[in-house]
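Students often ask why we bother predicting the structure of a whole assembly rather than each chain alone. The short answer is interfaces. A chain on its own may look different once its partners are present, and contacts between molecules only exist in the joint model. In this exercise we take two input lines together and write out one structure for the complete complex. Read the inputs first and try to guess which parts will touch.
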Amino acid sequence: MKSLKLLALIIIPLGIIMAAVPADRVKHFQLTADELLQEAGAGVQFVSPDVVADMLVQKDPSLQLIDVRTPEEYDAFSLPGAINVPLSNLLADEYTDLLNQDARMNVFYSNGSVYANQAWMITRQLGYGNNFVLEGGLNYWFGNILAATQPAQTSPNEEFAKYDFRKSAAAALGGGGVVSAAGDATPVKAVKPPVTAKAKKKPAGGC
Amino acid sequence: MGPLAPYEIISENTNFLLAFFIGIAFGWVLESSGFSSSRKLAGVFYGYDTVVLKVFFTAAITAMLGLLFMSLFGWVDLDLVYVNPTYLTSAIVGGVIMGAGFIMGGFCPGTSFCGAAIGKIDAMVFIGGLFIGVYGFAFTYGWWEKMYFAKYLGEPKVSEKLGMSDGLFGFFLILIALGMFVVAEWAEKKFPREEY
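Now the answer. The structure tokens for the assembled complex follow.
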């Protein structure tokens, strides 16, 4: 009986402490500011547009594009297969399953990369993995993938390979159509079928 | 930081090595507490000796408190700790079969190996029965498969089902355990057994 009292004396106070702790303190395993700074500084969240374009052309099912702009902007234009999760609604319950998963590679994008980066920061702080940011955002996407400019004649071969890939990707992803995507214009058909890209990078699927 | 293996802080092989040493320590504690005697386990069901109940419940409470506090300090991610999936029907059926086996045999799988290690013949017979059961189930698996996977509940936690925090449920579990210990000690006085 004596040892029982001793046991009770130890575990009951410990139990009271645990009972008094708010539930979410024991649930989520969050990153410290240090760890987050380190990851953000190293830029591990960025996925280059070429990789994303390649995955889109290949119809890689592990890619999930997430448009964090407003619904109006999303309706006006969005990347193929992207879903709209406005940044202001990021923490809504309905999106938790989408953002906190380990099956697919979520890629946030916005016009630049500021909003997408904010979305990544928030989800990373919550401890979610597998979320990435489209490097440069839509602006860079338009300027370099859809409207790729021919490199100078003196450029190294890699530049030409990249250019060829971007050209064919732009064709496959409905190149010029995006310019007139104000709503009423019919989508312009892709001129060429997706020819095999020359400088094909390996899809970084899943990471 | 933890759990160590899922975060690949230690390799799978190191994990097994640690499990090996923990297993040896576990067996040693079982044996030195006298659990290698079949009377110890049978005593729980007849009420004359409830040490097994007290030891295992104390171990469970200790592990629970340890995990909760380590999670609170950020040392272990409880979301990554493996939780057995629950198949309700097979859990109940299996529990009844195991319980009947414990009463009849006087051993549980762990203590039977302890008993066999110190040369107890009844423990060795028990292990023989254990393997007959394992192979019998494996070879007739097709008959049971439907029941085996019936009433799948996912990986529920009692605290989630009751809608309370893990800590609060843990506190209630501690109270329940202590209440059980009091009842157990009362039972030991009520149903004493002389000759062992």
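Check your guess against this: The longest helix of chain B spans residues 166-190.
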